[in-house]
Design brief:
The structure is a single chain. By secondary structure, the protein is an alpha/beta fold. Helices cover about 40% and strands about 15% of the residues. The strands form 2 sheets. It has an 8-stranded parallel β-sheet. A two-stranded antiparallel ribbon has the order 3-4. The protein starts with a strand and ends in an 8-residue tail after the last helix.
């Protein structure tokens, strides 16, 4: 059985040289001068971990693109059967952001939009996000974001699920939202949102599976089947590292298949290769 990695990066020099990366590199055992990862290295890591498709994230912040949509398009072109893109946009330029989402949605290269709130120091309920949410609904694209504490040296407040993300889910009931990085230390809030809002999903990126909170694992075994997806946060963690103790989760075969690939395939509409 293969897997789909819903949060990965094909990094650039701009990205890896950010000073806030220091703590993340230390936590994940990377060197202080971590080189960018290319398509070949990413594909090799996917093969070692049994990953069929990886969703590569663009990163755009107030200072501009750290990994641009064009960068992601270039990586996807190396292996269009193995990669898809998650675009990102500038929240300070709302109409340009909406036009970019509409333009890139026409290509099957991009299957969603990702905005990382701590990068902007703006919670997802801030008014600057709302044109992005409307465009995602119009184009049928999931909105992917980060929930929980911030590993890099930035404030964690923007990752608090309640009230910030709850307000978004109330205002945009048609919006499909994927919250990445599990949501600790607010895991109870995350699970409450998942039970309350059928369009809210969770991905386990940035966690090896044996480190997942027990409450989340229990959810995955039961009512949360199909609501939690696998992710790595590559290159900070590899799929092989994340999944090496997968059996210990004690997931039934159907739940395991949904976690590894079934839910992602449906939510991101991953049938077929990019045009």
């Amino acid at each position: 059985m293969g897997a789909i990695d819903v949060w990965a990066q094909a990094t650039t020099p701009r990205f890896v040289q950010e000073p806030w990366m220091t703590s993340l590199l230390r936590w994940t055992g990377k060197g202080e001068h971590n080189p960018p990862t290319g398509a070949a290295e990413t594909l090799a890591a996917m093969d070692r971990g049994g990953v069929d498709i990886a969703l590569l994230s663009a990163w755009v912040g107030p200072q501009g693109p750290l990994i641009s949509n064009d960068d992601v398009e270039g990586f996807v072109a190396h292996a269009p059967d193995r990669f898809r893109g998650l675009m990102s946009v500038n929240l300070y330029e709302p109409m340009a952001a909406v036009r970019e989402i509409r333009r890139l949605a026409r290509s099957r290269t991009f299957v969603g939009v990702r905005v990382v709130p701590w990068l902007w120091d703006l919670p997802p309920s801030d008014r600057r996000y709302y044109p992005v949410y409307a465009a995602c609904v119009e184009e049928g694209l999931p909105f992917c974001t980060q929930i929980g504490h911030t590993g890099p040296l930035r404030r964690s407040e923007t990752g608090r699920p309640i009230p910030y993300l709850e307000d978004v889910l109330l205002d945009f009931p048609e919006l499909v939202v994927v919250g990445g990085h599990v949501g600790a230390p607010w895991i109870d809030e995350v699970l409450l949102l998942a039970r309350k809002f059928p369009n809210f999903h969770i991905d386990t990126s940035a966690y090896a599976v044996h480190r997942l909170p027990e409450a989340l694992v229990k959810f995955m075994r039961g009512e949360g089947q199909g609501r939690v997806m696998f992710g790595t946060n590559w290159p900070m963690l590899s799929a092989a590292r994340c999944l090496e103790r997968l059996d210990a989760l004690d997931l039934a075969p159907a739940a395991r298949a949904l976690y590894l690939e079934g839910a992602a395939r449906e939510i991101f509409r991953l049938d077929g290769a990019p045009a």
